[in-house]
Amino acid sequence: MSLLESTLKEIKPLNEDAIKKAWNRIDNLTKPIGSLGRLEEIAAQMAGITGEVFPKIKNKNIIIMCSDNGVVEENVSNNSQKITSIVTNNFTRDITGVHVLSKFTNTDMTVVDIGVNCDFHNNLIIDKKISYGTKNMAKEPAMTREQAIRAVEIGIEMVDNLVEQGVNLFGTGEMGVGNTTTSAAVLSVLCDLEPEITAGKGSGITDTQLMCKREAIKKAIEVNKPDKNDVIDVLSKVGGYDIAGLCGCFLAAAKNRVPIVIDGFIASAAALCACRLKPLCKNYIFSSHLSAEPAAIHMLKEIGVEPLLNLKMRLGEGSGCPLAFNIIEAAIYTMENMGTFEDASLDVNEYIDIREK
Asked: Is 317 a catalytic residue?
């Protein structure tokens, strides 16, 4: 049995007993029922994920999958492909958005070269290169089926290894010029949406480039005829190594019963693929923010998650994850440390009467 197959088999539902105990605790805190809104839902979900009413976050890590995309030949980006390697290298320095936010929230980062068109000489970048970028999906499949499976399994391996090292809260990031094009293509195929809906301006392309981007997606679908009922087929034909790798991260997080956070549009495409492979994955996922990419809302609706924040961010890299980590940790801390009605020597009905007056 392959790593992918065994991972899918090992993903189980949330712990309903822990959820019930968490809600009993939450509803007996000194507050009106439901008054802490999403914080209550987060705390209950975390109990279901971990099996503990008061889970402890030991270590946080954002996995950043980096790769190049052959579709950049179609004039879909205003950045040259070399930007991928430059930014990937910069992730190991303290100058990128995700690095600064991670440092602020005491979060570690794992930078993975899963298919950058460059050789790195940096021991802080993990070399998992499958090839020097994917092929141009507008002309042929982006990768072989075997390469797509390998990319997914690299993501699984990364999370499995980090869980063994004590990480129990994950974020997802990426870098790859042209990857909003591949993500839009994945969304178009899986959800039967036209490129006019799924493809936006990404990093800030011109109107002409946006037309090229949408045309490239149409050509890719026409040429490759991906099967929307076969996620691996979709990833191999119109996806990217970064999306496939992150897909594996989401699957492995669910298998290991640890929470994992979506960053933006590309990570959402990966999460959508994971949830199509195993719908139970959704229960282990949080969405950090609503990306400014127009189709991001479609992606999150298809997954079935709501963003915790809407800061009009569109940086990618995993930059939304540290902010979400703070909210998740605040939810857990609040539910553990607030007093109950019993602690406060209050009768719940009297408390409600007092609040109404």
From this structure: yes
